[in-house]
């Protein structure tokens, strides 16, 4: 099967640029329900234009409706999904697997892809996605390649190969949400991960971009993904410039053609490049994962500064031209920007507001010539057009089985008849359609004004377009019925590092160990084992022998549904399931969850309407903001201090706990909010004591004192 190159489109221009560069498909968002709310996005008219253009080229368009949908928005969501499908979308991307199942049940025709926000990282998650009506999963970027083969045998599999990397496991980042009420799960991430922090250990005490990851580039590993069964190579970048999208598509087109693509790769680095690229986490963490010193576009190195007559000269094979832009690095850190001044022998001169020094590194970040070249291409579809324009007959144009005739016979020429060259030149113009016609003409004694000939051409190409486009019946929007009966029953579940730390007041203890290789079987009933959102086959092998001794698992990903079924234990669906509407609540209950946690991003009033039997709300304790499936210290294991807890401090002085744990033979980290949570709305509650500060938590649960410095989170105000 041909491997697809899937390109981003944040606006209409970018969609056409991607398709003209040779993308097999584009993905884009509507003005609502898109995980890139800051992109220009598409209204239905623009979506219709792009789908027509794409389908003429034999390409596809996927529409991202991949945010968490609140209960009050579900009717509008179903209407938007149907409208996108009616406008020609080939598939819809969704994060909420249960809402997707309801949509698929109502409209079996609609094709669903599970967004990377859905967190699929294991064959169990793929099985659940397929069971619920999804035909493809977009893998979590952290999925190890050794697990991809099993997933690809189960369901169509799409992987990110290029672009920005989220610091947190996708769909599990709440940093922007709790730091500023702008949720990444709602498409409004303010990227606190790209800010400077200092960490109290491992030589990271000075402010740096401690969580900022380099951009992903998998070009050299593409063959391995394809061998594993991947069917779609996805480029991230709905917020990137059109020339970046064109450069990325052309680079991966070259790679798939078996070429190294050195020129295309150079264009790509100059269009956008954070951190000189990394291969990400699919092949294990490498030293180039983090971009601690430089944030944003770093471009491509073209030389270094020397001072000639007091002017900054860059010796370089790159000739340059006016309008080019540069970034200057000194000792690996950004000094500032520079602009092209004029050419000089062996290089060029630059100008900058900053004082440039000999030895400064020059990085090309805006290449005017490359931009013009990248935006000039135009992919075309070859069509054979056969024309017969003969005096006394109706004009006739055919393309394969499609035949189009004019209404009236063609007049006979009194003086100079039409020539085949006249007709061929006219029909070579395709009115902006992405067609490359091969034209054959038969004509005899005919006369038509050029206006009449142009009108016939336009009518033919309009009719041909309709014939070439796929047809489907229109769907009528209708939200399927779904009700939730709220139940108020007091229970307390405590997340703790050990069963003992869970305390006697807990009805349910959720053990969250520091080291999963050292788990002890529980000594009583009602004990669940906490499982993180990233769960690999290696992780399962480490804990499979002890799983049956627990009453169940408290799981942060939908893979837990199949895992609980396999081991015949109970499922407590954690806050990572991101349950925000009645369809999700009904879906998780139908999936067999004994207990489930509602989203920690919705308010108490919103939670009340969803508190069905088994529902819990996070009300006390530590608020996990991010799951880091990598070492923020660069995996310097030989120098590791081995601490369980660090403190990450931002430039405003806020202190965010950083928790380390081990699973599957590797370390992972979690970032917690700078203030604990104390917001009890009644009913079953979860108290999170992941950081081990159980004393104040016990007092708070007993009603003896309020948590010092606590926040109410989204209890009073729902996330945007």
Fold and architecture overview:
With 720 residues, this protein is an alpha/beta fold. The protein has 4 domains: 4-165 and 214-271, Aldolase class I (TIM Barrel, Alpha-Beta Barrel), CATH 3.20.20; 300-374; 381-468, no CATH class; 492-623 and 675-702, Aldolase class I (TIM Barrel), CATH 3.20.20. 24% of the residues lie in helices and 25% in strands. Strands 1-2-3-4-5-6-7-10 form an 8-stranded parallel beta barrel, surrounded by 7 helices. Strands 21-22-23-24-25-26-27-33 form an 8-stranded parallel barrel. It is globular and about 105 Å long. It starts with a strand and ends in an 18-residue tail after the last helix.
Number of E-state strands: 33
Taking the sheet with the most strands, its summary is: 8 strands, parallel, barrel
State which percent range the strand residues make up: 25-35%
Give the CA-CA distance, first to last residue: 42 Å
């Amino acid at each position: 099967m041909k491997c697809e190159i899937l390109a981003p489109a944040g606006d209409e221009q970018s969609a056409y640029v991607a398709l003209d560069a040779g993308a097999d498909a584009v993905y884009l968002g509507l003005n609502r329900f898109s995980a890139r709310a800051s992109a220009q996005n598409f209204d239905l008219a623009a979506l219709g234009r792009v789908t027509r253009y794409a389908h003429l080229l034999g390409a596809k368009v996927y529409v991202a409706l991949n945010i968490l949908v609140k209960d009050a928005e579900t009717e509008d969501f179903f209407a938007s999904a149907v409208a996108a499908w009616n406008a020609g979308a080939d598939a819809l991307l969704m994060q909420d697997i249960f809402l997707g199942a309801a949509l698929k049940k109502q409209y079996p025709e609609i094709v669903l892809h599970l967004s990377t926000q859905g967190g699929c990282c294991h064959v169990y998650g793929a099985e659940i996605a397929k069971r619920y009506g999804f035909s493809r999963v977009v893998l979590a970027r952290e999925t190890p390649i050794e697990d991809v083969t099993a997933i690809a045998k189960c369901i169509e599999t799409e992987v990110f190969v290029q672009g920005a990397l989220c610091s947190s496991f996708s769909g599990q980042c709440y940093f922007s949400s709790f730091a500023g009420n702008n949720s990444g799960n709602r498409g409004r991430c303010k990227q606190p991960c790209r800010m400077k922090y200092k960490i109290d250990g491992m030589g990271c005490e000075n402010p740096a971009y401690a969580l900022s990851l380099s951009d992903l580039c998998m070009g050299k590993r593409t063959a391995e993904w394809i061998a594993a069964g991947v069917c779609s190579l996805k480029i991230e970048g709905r917020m990137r410039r059109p020339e970046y999208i064109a450069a990325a598509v052309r680079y991966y087109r070259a790679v798939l053609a078996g070429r190294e693509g050195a020129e295309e790769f150079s264009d790509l680095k100059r269009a956008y490049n954070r951190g000189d690229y990394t291969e990400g986490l699919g092949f294990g963490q490498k030293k180039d994962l983090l971009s601690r010193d430089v944030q944003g576009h770093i471009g491509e190195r073209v030389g270094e500064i020397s001072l000639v007559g007091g002017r900054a000269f860059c010796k370089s094979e790159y000739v340059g031209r006016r309008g080019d832009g540069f970034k200057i690095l000194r000792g690996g850190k950004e000094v500032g920007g520079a602009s092209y001044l004029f050419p000089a022998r062996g290089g060029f001169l630059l100008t900058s507001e900053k004082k440039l020094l000999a030895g400064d590194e020059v990085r090309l970040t805006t290449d005017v010539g490359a931009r013009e070249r990248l935006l000039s291409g135009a992919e075309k579809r070859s069509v054979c057009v056969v024309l017969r324009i003969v005096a006394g007959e109706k004009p006739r144009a055919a393309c394969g089985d499609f035949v189009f005739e004019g209404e009236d016979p063609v007049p006979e020429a009194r003086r100079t008849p039409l020539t085949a060259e006249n007709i061929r030149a006219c029909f070579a113009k395709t009115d902006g359609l992405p067609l490359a016609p091969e034209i054959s003409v038969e004509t005899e004694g005919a006369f038509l004004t050029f206006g009449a000939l142009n009108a016939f051409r336009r009518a033919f190409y309009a009719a041909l377009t309709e014939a070439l486009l796929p047809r489907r019946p229109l769907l009528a929007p209708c939200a399927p019925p779904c009700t939730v009966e709220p139940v108020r029953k007091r229970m307390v579940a405590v997340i703790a590092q050990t069963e003992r730390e869970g305390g006697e007041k807990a009805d349910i203890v959720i053990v969250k160990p520091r080291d999963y290789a050292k788990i002890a079987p529980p000594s009583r009933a009602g004990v669940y084992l906490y499982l993180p959102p990233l769960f690999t086959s290696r992780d399962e092998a480490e804990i499979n022998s002890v799983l049956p001794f627990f009453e169940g698992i408290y799981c942060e990903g939908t893979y837990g549904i199949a895992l609980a079924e396999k081991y015949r234990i109970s499922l407590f669906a954690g806050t990572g399931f991101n349950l925000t509407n009645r369809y999700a609540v009904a879906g998780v209950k139908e999936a067999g969850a004994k207990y489930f946690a509602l989203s920690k991003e919705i308010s108490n009033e919103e939670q009340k309407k969803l508190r069905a039997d088994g529902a819990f709300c996070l009300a006390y304790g530590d608020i996990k903001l991010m799951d880091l499936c990598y070492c923020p210290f660069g995996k310097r294991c030989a120098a590791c201090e081995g601490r369980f807890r660090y403190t990450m401090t931002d430039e405003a002085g806020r202190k965010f706990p950083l928790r380390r744990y081990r699973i599957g033979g590797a370390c992972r980290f979690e970032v917690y909010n700078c203030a604990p949570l104390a917001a009890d709305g009644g009913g079953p509650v979860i108290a999170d004591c992941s950081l081990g500060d159980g004393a104040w938590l016990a007092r708070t649960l007993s009603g003896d004192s309020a948590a010092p410095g606590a926040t109410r989170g989204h209890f009073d105000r729902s996330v945007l």
